[in-house]
Input
Amino acid sequence: MSRPETLLECRGLYCGFGELEVLIGTDVIVKRGETVVIMGRSGCGKSVLLKHMNGLYRPDRGSVFFDGEEISGKSEKELVSVRRRIGMLFQAGALFDSLTVGENVAFPLERYGLYPGDARADRIAELLSFVSLEGTEDRMPSELSGGMRKRAALARTLALEPDLLLYDEPTTGLDPVTAHQVNSLLRDLQARLGLSSVVVTHDVNTARYVADKIAFLYNGKIREIGTIEEVFASSDPVISEFLYPDPARPGPR
Output
């Protein structure tokens, strides 16, 4: 039996905090092997939407489906098996400062009892090689640059061989050269491992480089979704102003 083409679907999500409405009927579809970039102004709810995709947040209304199964109503215990298949790279990486790089990468393997004995060290070395951090097992996070910490966190995220990767502002705080290296890595991992990805960013260069589709979030709803070419050629003034903020370099209106 063939698997459905859609891996993740957010259907009519509503979410608010007190009187603040953040998501208002938000819809997103992610297909297998596809990278969807969620863009929008700071504070528009991009990270809130991302955290609904692995059950960290529950919608007030609406549903989230992963691989054909609704996950938005599952308990924390029921979500354990789902989260093994959905990796998340947090904005700051969230490495454990008291553990070495190798111990950080080993953490999810130990938690689930995977790759026991000598096989674990081999798996750690393999994961670090995926992100071009060979030989850093014994280094501490404080000894790494910002870009290296992001890559180490990504190696840890890949440890459980997820089907879907969620990235929250993967290039925030990085210089342009390091940001380009991280973007190249995201695209390379998608090609090599066949991963599906959702990338939250307000970085136009990141969106151009890694996206198969761009979903523009505005006032709690996806205002437009399409290919890079379609969104960057949009005549919508809200989107055009975001993508081309310099009046000396107007968009395609």
